[in-house]
Amino acid sequence: MYEETAGVYEPPSSAVATCRARCLGGVGCRQRRELNKNPVEGFSAGLIDDNDLYRWEVLIIGPPDTLYEGGVFKAHLTFPKDYPLRPPKMKFITEIWHPNVDKNGDVCISILHEPGEDKYGYEKPEERWLPIHTVETIMISVISMLADPNGDSPANVDAAKEWREDRNGEFKRKVARCVRKSQETAFE
Asked: Which among 108, 115, 116 has a CA at the least distance from the CA of 91?
């Protein structure tokens, strides 16, 4: 049923609100269309479930000339109800050994941290989440993180220690195991 407003028939405001909420305030739909129209090298993204626009699955290809090259890493992006004012959370589903990914798979990089001042003084506000960021900017940051880990701000202290002290030994072996495993399970 439509409502008449100044001689114009429009969908009821509740239907508009539902549609906007389903599309993450319209932002999510726009970003999905843009990614489909202009895919970005190194990752693909889509909904986990067509009925839940707040949960996306991404496949990240390990960047060339890095220890992660050849890997196909599956991750989930979970958007808060007030996106884009607050950042999504990202969690690797595929096992990955990386200083900036904790042992549960949660990604810890500045762009995914709540906006504003860092209470520890490590990050500048402009390095943290801003509502202008998109799925594309998040994924580019994650691909960059794979290419150049930040050992100074680790989510996985053991991986950071190995990255600093034994990059071409134990760290490299663990990453190679994760890459092989990711290739075996990528399309399950």
From this structure: 108
Q: Which two tokens stand for residue 104?
A: 């549960």
- For residue 8, is it within any domain? no
In a domain, 106, yes or no: yes
Largest CA distance in the chain: 73
Tell me the sheet residues that pair with 91.
76, 106
CB atoms within 10 A of CB 1: 6
Residues 16-63 pLDDT 10s: 344 444 455 555 576 666 666 666 778 888 899 989 999 999 999 999
Residue 181 and residue 71 in contact, taking contact as beta carbons nearer than 8 Å: no
Among this protein's residues, is 108 annotated catalytic?
yes
pLDDT digit string, tens, across residues 101-152: 999 999 999 999 999 888 877 888 888 999 999 888 999 999 999 999 998 8
Cβ-in-10-Å burial (0-12, 13-18, 19+) of 109 comes to buried
For residue 101, being part of any structural domain is answered with: yes
Q: Are 43 and 94 in contact (CB under 8 A)?
A: no
Domain of residue 114, CATH code: 3.10.110.10
Q: Given 19, 23, 29, 108, which residue is catalytic?
A: 108
Domain that holds residue 129: 41-185
In a domain, 77, yes or no: yes
> Domain count of the chain?
1
